Amino acid sequence: MNATATNAPAATTEVDFKKKYEETNEPSNAGLHNPVAKNLSEKVLTSFYDVLTPKAELNLQAQIKQAAAVGDFDALEALMAQRKEIKANQAKDGNIIKEIRKHDFPLVLKAFRAEFDAIIYEIAYNVLTGSHKAIVEASKSTRAPRGSKATGDDAGGEKATRKKSLFKVTKPDGTVVDFPVIMGPKGNTDFKAVEDAYKALGFEVKKDGDEYVVEPGTIELKAGGNVMVNRVNLMEAIEKQTSAQFDGWTVEKIKID
């Protein structure tokens, strides 16, 4: 009996996890995942994109966004010229990347072991702390005390579910600063509305023409470069400990009635 032997592996179907993840952001799937879990997954992606995008480009993007927000077209023109120069330099990296891709990935991984370790442990820490927080929040009882009954606006509807938020920032000496979250399109940079909170954290709010600005206007990062001062960047720098000036500080976001 003649037979033909083969060692070819069985065909496998590769799962496109990028596509699956992007599908979770579609409107029809908006309620499938807990917001805390979504936020955690976005942090994981951000960890990779921060590495892939040069710090100089990240800093430039922040400046472009800030200039666009205040309508400073002269600054925008100069910043876009810098962006064009950065893009031109990135194009020159193509040949280097081609050479690297000639090697097996495990070998490349070994060559950049320290850099990969830094990324992996950052992600592991974010997953650990983020999932712990999600589990703790999920375990808290949200039922009203026995014998009580909500009435009026408290019985349901939009007013009953929409609560204000604030960040509780704790300094190494134990001082706690409440940093309110201002909603709306300009809430992230509404310095005047939370002037007291900025002052308590070491910043100064000043009037510049018809607008208010904060000084110093940037946060120096341990990895090099800086980011513009606003609520999101400030809280992220404290939470992730990415700036030496906030070493030992902690922050927690809470809901208030």
Summarize the structure.
With 257 residues, the chain is α+β, with helices and mostly antiparallel strands.
- Gross morphology is globular
Q: How widely separated are the two ends? A: 82 Å
Number of strands: 7
Low-confidence stretches: 1-12, 141-162
Instruction: Calculate the mean pLDDT score and round it.
Output: 77
Determine the structural class based on helices, strands and strand pairing.
Answer: alpha+beta
Strand order across the biggest sheet? Answer: 2-1-7
Q: H/E element string?
A: HHHHHHHHEEHEEEEHE
Rg, nearest Å: 24 Å
Largest sheet: 3 strands, antiparallel
**Can you tell me the number of structural domains?**
2
Q: What is the helix content?
A: 40-55%
Oligomer: single chain
Strand content: 5-15%
Total helical elements: 10
Structure description:
The protein is of the alpha+beta class and 257 residues long. The protein folds into 2 domains: 33-137, no CATH class; 163-256, no CATH class. It is built from 10 helices and 7 strands. A 3-stranded antiparallel beta sheet has the order 2-1-7. A two-stranded antiparallel sheet has the order 3-4. Strands 5-6 form a two-stranded antiparallel ribbon. It starts with 16 loop residues before the first helix and ends with a strand. The model is unreliable at 1-12 and 141-162 (pLDDT under 50).
SSE order and pairing:
Elements: H1 17-23, H2 35-52, H3 55-70, H4 73-92, H5 94-100, H6 105-111, H7 113-139, H8 158-161, E1 164-170, E2 176-180, H9 195-200, E3 204-208, E4 211-215, E5 218-220, E6 226-228, H10 231-240, E7 250-256
Antiparallel strand pairs: 1-2, 1-7, 3-4, 5-6
Helix pairs in contact: 2-7, 3-4
